[in-house]
């Protein structure tokens, strides 16, 4: 298949910021790209060759879109997997596969998959409904505290709650869910693994998600992670074993906990470009987006090491601000060394909505981390 | 002016590959962008917010387009400057200015400008018509050999000829032209200077254009240039003085000769992103395209030093091939370390047409240069 010809069409399910950044690389390689998204204001509307409006969970919308392309990928997991399965049977190359997505879409299935494949993950229990949890606690089958996770459709922090007392269960949706032992961890780490259909595999360096000391929120993604070589090696091994078990094509971002004993436990995975890899655009020889494209098109994978140290700060909507977005002090942060803002192009801000990110690169990682703090203190995503 | 709002519009005259690469950065910053180009197949048609069809040399086309934007820039010099002058008077910010463009558009005017500003350049003579040259030789006012240059509209090697004998003059168009003393040079160097309206100035590192030993054609752009610190310093000084004389806003790419005595002579300039800066996308902290955008929007200029060594190879159409383009062996070069092809998206190839470029980055510049040679030997731009 000649990807670099106008007879080839790549389809992307989802037209958000990840798709938008992927389109930079389809444009760089001049690959014809079609995007399906439910919103007429999707960031991908520009820069795709064809933009199609449609519901990603709708069988017909996904099937009809998929029939028009040669290779189909995703930028969001919540898509109609039955349609993908039919498309695969009918010869469309779907990466990640319907099989991979089915396991990942449901957190209970995903956790069982790790257990079945002897992959390290925190102990958990599965419930058909949240209402069954109280009974399990009362019968001694479950002890507090734990992490409650909605099994399906949780995304970016929604659908996850730390439950310390029975009262914390109140207000949670009564849905299929899992409870996970609360693991006291030293670090949250991530490794992005790329694999193409020929079976070539490359891993990006281990990154560290640095949390705010008070708020339980990732503040910085730091590449490379400030951990020992032994811990980094173990994290890469776990990520590679996870990749092997899924047998995925494209990227697999593996989020992990480094426990107090320096064990590595898988938290969850994403079979696509991921927030923990944004700094690769400026810091790595190959960006995660170019690498995803190389992988799904069965091109040779690019170098994954870093040119320089990288730190990423998410730009999320400020609390109390809703409406037309304003990036306050963006010019001030652009004065700082090695600072690149990425604005996703969403017109409306809402509290905690992901509106962009800022990458800080420097030959000295500590200096990048210092500048990142200044960036975080300075820029604000507010409304008009 | 809030550039990061939907009320702001940036206009670009020209929709070719330079505009296309600039659009990557307008998309990154979510800046609303309008492009004017005469071809419906222009690489900028995708990824601009608005694409307008029109002749860049036509007063009305340029004026009417310019009236719709807040800041107007170019990706090609051959545009209607009278329209730009009117737009400036009417409050549109035009960078580079009509004044800068008027000097640069005509090679005779450009050379006189260097003389007037005590900037070093090779001696030259000016002729209203090529036919007058023979007379000058006969009267002893001009001696062979020399370089003949068409004064206007020469681009990418057209409009330039080395004249060694009177017979070489035959077949040249009878137009306004200059003749320049043939300078035996050690190296052709270039420095890109960025300047914003506030007067902030930054220079990218000196690059070297390595020529094919037989064919008189640039084969590689190498960053940084393999010259002594003293020569590099002198080249930067000449570039800065040139920038100061033009008082331009945006980028100014200054092409220079390093003579046998290590003098620096200005060859010519381009007030925009330039072929000698493509490697900045992968090699520099700030790409030339992002820097041009920062400069014309009066944003702080970014760091211009390199993360790693960079070499750039142009992808031009192979001799004897015309028609639908095929990039032969593109997958083979993507196997090599640190290799990124940029495909401009032109559907038709012609001999020597610029169809793309390949950047090779490496922590070791010599290794990048070695891989670049392999790239050049391997990939071919042919027709179906």
From TrEMBL, chains A, B:
The keyword Signal does not apply. One of its GO terms (biological process) is 'de novo' IMP biosynthetic process. InterPro entries: ATP-grasp, ATP-grasp_carboxylate-amine, ATP_grasp_subdomain_1, PreATP-grasp_dom_sf, PurK, PurK_C, PurT/PurK_preATP-grasp, Rudment_hybrid_motif. ATP binds at residues 107, 149, 180-183, 188, 267-268. Residues 111-297 form the ATP-grasp domain. Keywords: ATP-binding, Decarboxylase, Ligase, Lyase, Nucleotide-binding, Purine biosynthesis. Homodimer. This is N5-carboxyaminoimidazole ribonucleotide synthase. It comes from Mariniflexile litorale.
């Amino acid at each position: 298949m000649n990807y670099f010809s106008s007879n080839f069409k790549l389809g992307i399910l989802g037209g958000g910021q990840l798709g938008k950044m992927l389109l930079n690389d389809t444009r760089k390689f001049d690959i014809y790209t079609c995007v399906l998204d439910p919103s007429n204001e999707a960031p991908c509307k520009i820069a795709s060759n064809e933009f199609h409006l449609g519901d990603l969970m709708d069988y017909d919308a996904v099937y009809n879109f998929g029939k028009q392309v040669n290779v189909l990928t995703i930028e969001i997991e919540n898509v109609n997997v039955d349609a993908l399965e039919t498309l695969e049977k009918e010869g469309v190359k779907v990466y990640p596969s319907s099989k991979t997505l089915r396991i990942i879409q449901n957190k209970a299935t995903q956790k069982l998959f790790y257990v079945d494949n002897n992959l390290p993950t925190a102990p958990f229990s599965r419930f058909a409904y949240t209402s069954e949890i109280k009974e399990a606690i009362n019968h001694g089958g479950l002890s507090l505290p734990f992490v409650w996770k909605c099994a399906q459709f949780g995304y970016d922090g929604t659908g996850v709650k730390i439950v310390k007392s029975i009262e914390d269960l109140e207000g949670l949706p009564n849905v299929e869910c899992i409870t996970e032992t609360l693991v006291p961890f030293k670090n949250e780490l991530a490794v992005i693994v790329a694999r193409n259909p020929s079976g070539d595999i490359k891993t990006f360096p281990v990154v560290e998600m640095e949390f705010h000391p008070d708020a339980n929120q990732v503040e910085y993604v730091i590449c490379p992670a400030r951990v020992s070589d032994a811990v980094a090696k173990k994290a890469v091994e776990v990520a590679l074993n996870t990749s092997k078990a899924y047998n995925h094509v494209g990227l697999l971002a593996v989020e992990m906990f480094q426990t107090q004993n320096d064990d590595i436990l898988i938290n969850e995975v994403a079979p696509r470009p991921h927030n923990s890899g944004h700094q690769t655009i400026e810091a790595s020889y190959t960006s995660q987006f170019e690498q995803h494209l190389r992988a799904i098109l069965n091109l040779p994978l690019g170098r994954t090491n870093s040119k320089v140290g990288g730190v990423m700060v998410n730009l999320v909507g400020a609390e109390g601000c809703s409406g037309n977005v304003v990036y306050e002090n963006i010019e001030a942060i652009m004065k700082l060394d090695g600072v690149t803002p990425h604005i996703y192009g969403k017109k409306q801000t809402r509290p905690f909505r992901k509106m962009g990110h800022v990458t800080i690169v420097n030959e000295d990682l500590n200096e990048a981390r210092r500048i990142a703090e200044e960036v975080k203190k300075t820029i604000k995503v507010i409304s008009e």
